[in-house]
Amino acid sequence: MQDFADLVIVNASVHTMDPAQPHRMTDAVAIKDGRISGLGHEDVSLSIGPDTQVVDAAGGAVIPGINDAHLHFVSAAMAAFGYVRLDPDVAPDWATVVEVVAAAPVGEDGWVRAHGWDEALLGPAGGYLLDCRPHTPVVAFDSTGHQLLANAEALRRAGITATTPDTEGGVIVRAADGSPIGLLQDGAMELVSRAMPPVPSATLRPALLHFQEHLHALGITSLTEPGLGPASAGLMDGAGSTAALELLGDLAAAGELTLRINVLMLFAGTGGANAKAIDDGLRSGLAATYANRGIEPGQLRIAGVKVFADGIPRSGTAWMSEPYGAVCTHGRLVIQGASDGERVAELNRILELIDDAGLQAGVHATGDAATAAAVEAISAASKDPGGHSTRGNRHYVIHGAFSDPGMLRTMASQGIGYSTNPLIRHEAGDIMRQVLGEDRFSQHQPLQSALEAGVHLNIASDAPVTSPDWRRTVVAAVRRATRSTPGNPRDPERISGLQALTAMTLDAAWQDHAEHDKGSLIPGMTADLCLLSNPWPADEEIEKLLDTDVRLTLSGGRAVHRSTSWNHSLPFNHS
Length: 575
Fold this sequence. Notes:
The chain is an alpha/beta fold and 575 residues long.
């Protein structure tokens, strides 16, 4: 008896992302039991039976499902569907920010929570909300996840006064008399976040499900959630709590989670990470949250631990080998310790603990000195006393800045991954150029150099810091432009559109230890894919990608998105 396919897509330009044949393309793909079962017209036509659903791609590209390897799913869901929005299209200047917040409804918990202001567009943040709504606590998180604005009532509830000291790795911005103006940076954000009531499940659950639909509509089928756990108050908007981590498990157990999610646990926030906190977290049993619940690891798994080595350049908290910014700071590691040497030693101990636990470390490092320290710590943690590599935990650097080209070769030889964000470079590039100077900015995110060195590179959105629309990330990687300056066609760190696509599919799957199961469209692989309305554009016309619709998204062969503007009769599986 002929084993017919469940679904076939014909008249397509199928980008297989076959690692053995990187440029392999074909014109049709067949799916059976949630996996790729055939490629090419001749093979696929033989698998069409009376019950096979046939999709005519009309020449559109079929690509593996997009895997955003650094997307704050919980925070981005709340930013999109749970908070008052302060995006540039809603609040283009500080006066409007204040107006929007002043008019916003108060939440069930008595707080006004907003998100999305960006000083790269609005100008430096001051105490704009300090006197807003004097009887209601207000907090507004910025787009980077590294700053927030609070009003006087929120500061009062958090117990923040002129005598409150700055936190490890954080800054309470103050007026000339020492009084706080309501702007808190990096580790200091935790002072306010811990005073806020937790986001109720009745708000978070629908936000997650709505955002899941949105991501599927973009063609995204997998992501890494970089930081859920007990230290959530020190990251982004503080929504990524242990309760949120457990809620993802509830959704997966109920069959409502159709995204594939890898989670990094967070045991220390954006300031003051230390070995004791990491050790306590590893001993807590949190890594077994999804065990014995019937949850497929390919759907939802706890992959490792997020570690903040430093902050970001615009806050002066990135650790650089040379001074930068208006105050000519070097920054420093935000790891606990009284000196650079102590902090580096503590980072090494942290990485040893994570590696010994058999987990993956994702190390946030935005300065070149911090990146060097992270690479050295990962290399040391992954070797036995004889200098031999002992495990394949696939630790990786997040963001990353490089002053030594040899460091990329070290990363390649040690199996250290690199996850970075071209769209952040585009969106915040103008202010970063001012902070870093032209020379260092031109070398920021050395994508082509990383590929040539053999580093496992992926590119990701870091949503809600930027848009989760992967098409914009691809264009940013190809053009390397900023908001005000077009990219240089001779920029040696540009990559091609198909290299960028590989970085968001097959190479992102490597980070998940899943490159043999997803990320490419070859027989036997999981049928995570999306169908585009147009063929993949040439690099010279890469902006055409922005006008290309995602017509169909499949997760494990199930239709999780079908464009309403596409009149194909394929049934849509809401399960």
